[in-house]
Amino acid sequence: RGLEKYFPIKKGVMRLTKGNVRAVDGVSFDVKAGETFGLVGESGCGKSTTGRSILRLIEPTGGEVIFDGKDIRKLGQTEMRKMRKEMQIVFQDPYASLNPRYTVRQILEEPMIIHGLHGGAAERKKKVIDLLETVGLSGSRMNRYPHEFSGGQRQRIGIARALAVSPKLIIADEPVSALDVSVQSQVLNLMNDLQNEYGIAYVFIAHDLSVVKHISDRIGVMYLGKLVELGPAEELYEKPLHPYTQALLSAVPIPDPEIKRERIILQGDLPSPSNPPSGCYFHPRCKDCMAICKTTAPEWKEVEPNRFVACHLYN
Ligand code: SF4
Ligand code: MG
Description:
By secondary structure, the protein is an alpha/beta fold. It has a domain of 154 residues: 3-Layer(aba) Sandwich (Rossmann fold). It has 9 helices and 12 strands. It has an 8-stranded mixed sheet with strand order 6-7-8-3-9-10-12-11, with helices on both faces. A two-stranded antiparallel sheet has the order 1-2. The protein has a two-stranded antiparallel sheet with strand order 4-5. Helix 3 crosses helix 4, helix 3 packs parallel to helix 5 and helix 5 packs parallel to helix 6. The two termini are 23 Å apart. The site of magnesium ion has 4 residues, from helix 1. InterPro entries: AAA+_ATPase (IPR003593), ABC_transp_ATP-bind (IPR050319), ABC_transporter-like_ATP-bd (IPR003439), ABC_transporter-like_CS (IPR017871), Oligopep_ABC_C (IPR013563), P-loop_NTPase (IPR027417). Keywords: ATP-binding, Nucleotide-binding, Transport.
């Protein structure tokens, strides 16, 4: 609710600008048990910072993160450690996120040991083998090191590590972006199967709408630290409301050659969040920009049931 992460601007770097970089600027959404919430936007829009702020890997500067009815920002260290068992993260780069000096067995045992799960060594070893098999790898490879696996296999190990503590929520931060296209769908299918089996909720972060299309129940689109549109995945694809969503979607290829969609080219670059445009942050790049857009920020509104958008076109 109203999640904020402001970073102070370092003195001397940008002398003319005062105050903060609003990396996450009042973001609100719900994730239901067992659902996938896709969080989409260009790099630098604050989606990763949102994901990390939810887990308090980065401490938010404002707002609430309510999990099972509790604002986890109010939890002390001990309670927070328990809570971490419920929420895990899978990172974009499966190589950088796995300790190269640890065997796969050590990597998977670490979260169990931290959270005091699965008792003694024999029990943990059994769990490691189970986990590897759950993600489609052979348990016989548990004494190997990350570099002995392919990119897709390493991401499976990253997923197994998240599963080790049986979380209710996984923040998946661009989990397939670093993988070959042929491997991406395998990892997405695996995540989908795991969700069906264990009822895990995902916040699935991506810069590309085509990746989240099949996996998401609902999608939120972010621009410069704010949500600009949120709705059920299918409706958002059929009829994107916000001009930014329309532009992102126009870049997604349609498999059916009969259907033609006009490609909307975004003007200019993503502005810096340290110096955002006036009014609607998207106005310098918007094909539908009106006079009011340059002066007044649009309100976040539910314009149709379950469909939220911040845009003056819907006032
Ligand atoms: Fe475009 Fe105006 Fe809507 Fe912003 S508020 S997206 S500038 S039409
Ligand atoms: Mg990112």
